[in-house]
Predict the structure.
Amino acid sequence: MSIIVVGSTAFDDIETPKGKRDRIIGGSCIYFSLAACFRSNPRIVSVVGKDFSKNFFKELNKKGIDTSGLLVKDGKTFSWGGKYKSISEDPETKFTNLNVFENFLPIIPTSYKLKNKIVFLANIDPDLQNKVLDSLDSKKFIGMDTMNFWINSKRKSLDRAFERINLLTINELELGLITKKKSLEKSLEYIFNRYPIKFLVVKKGSSGSLLATRNSLNWIPCYPFAKMIDPTGAGDSFAGGLFSFLNNVNSFDKKNILLGMIYGSAIASFTIESFGTNKIFNLSKKEIDNRYKLLKKIAKII
Amino acid sequence: MSIIVVGSTAFDDIETPKGKRDRIIGGSCIYFSLAACFRSNPRIVSVVGKDFSKNFFKELNKKGIDTSGLLVKDGKTFSWGGKYKSISEDPETKFTNLNVFENFLPIIPTSYKLKNKIVFLANIDPDLQNKVLDSLDSKKFIGMDTMNFWINSKRKSLDRAFERINLLTINELELGLITKKKSLEKSLEYIFNRYPIKFLVVKKGSSGSLLATRNSLNWIPCYPFAKMIDPTGAGDSFAGGLFSFLNNVNSFDKKNILLGMIYGSAIASFTIESFGTNKIFNLSKKEIDNRYKLLKKIAKII
């Protein structure tokens, strides 16, 4: 079975306290699919410009990632520059050049429509996320991510998407921006009173992540031994791990989502150990499984 | 059964992003015993000056806290001033006036020597911690805390104490100072190779806490809904909760220590919700038990 992921493909300029890299390949659907390819065949819906290397497509294909929906358009690839003052804080955006993304209309290729039950809408313009949602049948399990920029600028469109998804992954700061509540307690109340979202995954960086449902709350630790170099892509890798885990279970219930979060947490712990996709690109299934097993032990206390 | 706690009693000047308080009662053994009094009769070994209110002694006694070892000496009470720039960071010390603490010799009253199996050496000069250790029989379960000041200035004395304790509570930054290792993995290796400490509790602030033993690692979440006002005393309250929990179990094994850490985490989540001891002073057993139960649910994922 496979997972469809709709998101950005990008060139990133990244500066962290550990160093600086220019024009490295990134983007939400790249991190997601590199994380998801160990337990699924991710199918990318995205766009790049003519300046993007075709070789990279081949590298993705070798990993079982389908790039039929990764369009090449006239123009330049989306690019983003960010600086992390401290490694645990959100980055300061230096520039965002939408380029070919500006007129991107995500279309799911017919070949993608078979044998998939999961769709992940990575962080892009909620208008585009809604376009994808319009084209999906209601039987899919749909996950979604977003960011402060869209929360502040396209709230109505975001609300429309929230009406139609099953699982939202979001960081603590963004959650506060959506709900305008200072306490987590009130924020959760707000979300579950207002939207039919069943599972809310709150990402807390090095503090791990929370899974909230209408009547439960659970905490997943993050891998405590990771050597943090560059946090970029951690959230998308986490989601890629989580959804590829769900791709192999029979029901999307709380227990499986929690196990999937541990698996996602294990993969994300590798992502942050290098700039860009370096580490996650060269990862083995065994390395991931070892951290997954250790994290399960760390998490099991009673 | 009761617990002996050796530590400081203080007047604190505290500034956090949420406000400022001058000359409020604090000190490690005060926070510890206020947290521990719900499940034990804490016995304080400490010292104050003539400027300290006798009424406060009576308030402690009403809560089942024994103050026979809380000496009143000529002079002023130990005082400390600290400023938290952000609520998740360690405070900047504005001043430390040792006052009567300068010539303090901790002596455990004969009346304390009966019916106790647990001793906690809160953060004070390791020379004093060693003096207490010299006077104890080997059957006690001994916990200990320390801080960067002593790690940098009295390392040899600290090493001598580490040789003789069962459980060390320490924050992540202090652990790095002791081991001079950058990674948690190497730090744990260092501690367990060098000292006979059986249980190492690494406090990670709002990220929860870790319990490390020679061959295991577990992560305890912190209460995610706490409204942070002033972090002062969180670590000592956490320890008070943990050790008072242990006071009521038959064996000091990993499982009980993990449950005790959850209990300690529940109490510490109240401590940080007011300046000084305000909240913890007026707490009910039921409030604590509710958060303890909720935290157990949050922590139980598999």
